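Recall from the previous lesson that a structure prediction takes nothing but the amino acid sequence as input. Here we apply that procedure to DNA alkylation repair protein from Paenibacillus germinis. The sequence below is the only information supplied.
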Amino acid sequence: MNVEMVMQELEALGKERTKKIYGSNGAHEPLFGVATGDMKPIAKKIKINQPLAEQLYSTGNYDAMYFAGIIADPNAMTEADYERWMDAAYFYMLSDYVVAVTLAEADIAQEVADKWIASGEELRMSAGWSCYCWLLGNRPDGEFSESKIANMLETVRNTIHDSPERTKYAMNSFIYTVGVSYLPLHDKAVETAMAVGPVEVKRDKKKSSFLHASENIQKGIDRGQLGFKRKHVRC
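The prediction returns the following C-alpha cells.
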C-alpha cells in the first residue's frame, strides 16, 4: 500500500464523534477521527514499513501520524529522526503515545529519553518520562540501573509540583510505573508517592485535576499487578 491508499482507508474509518474527542484533547485539523483499534487490520496488511511511516507522519494528519507509529521500525530511526518526529508532535497524544511509544522499542531509548527529560520543554519532558513508563512496563528489571531509576524518583519528588502541566502527568505515571512494574524500587516509589502527595494539574477553561500516584499504586497492588510487564509496547 502507498501513502494515498492508506490515507483513503483511514479517512473511510473516521467518525465525527471520535474526531471531537481527539479535538477536545488537543488534536487539530487535519484529522479523520479513527479509533486506534480500527487501524489494526490495515497495520496487519502493511506490517513494518519505515519509508511509508515517514510519509504518513509528514502529512501532519493526526490519524496518519498515529498510524505511522504503529508501522514504524524503531531501530531504523536515528536520534535525529526521533527529534524530527518530536518537533512535529504538537500535543501530548503524539508526544507520549506515538513518539515515546515508538522510541521505547528502540535500542537508543534511554539515551534519547534522558535528553528530553533534561530539555526543559514541556512535551519533550513529557515524552521522556512517558518513554520510561513504557520501558519499565515492558522490559526486564535487569535492563535498568537501579541507582539511575532511584535518582529519577528523587528528581520527580523534588520537581513535579513546579513542572509544566503535561509533564506532571508523565512524572506521576513514572512514580506509579516504578511502584508497580519495577520491583527493586517498589518501596521507594511508594515512599515517593506519599511524599509527593496529590499533584494539581491546571487545565484550560476547566477545573484543576489532581493526580494521586499513591492511590493508583495501591489499586495496582490490590489487583495483583505487582511486577506487571506488557508483552508489547505498541498495539
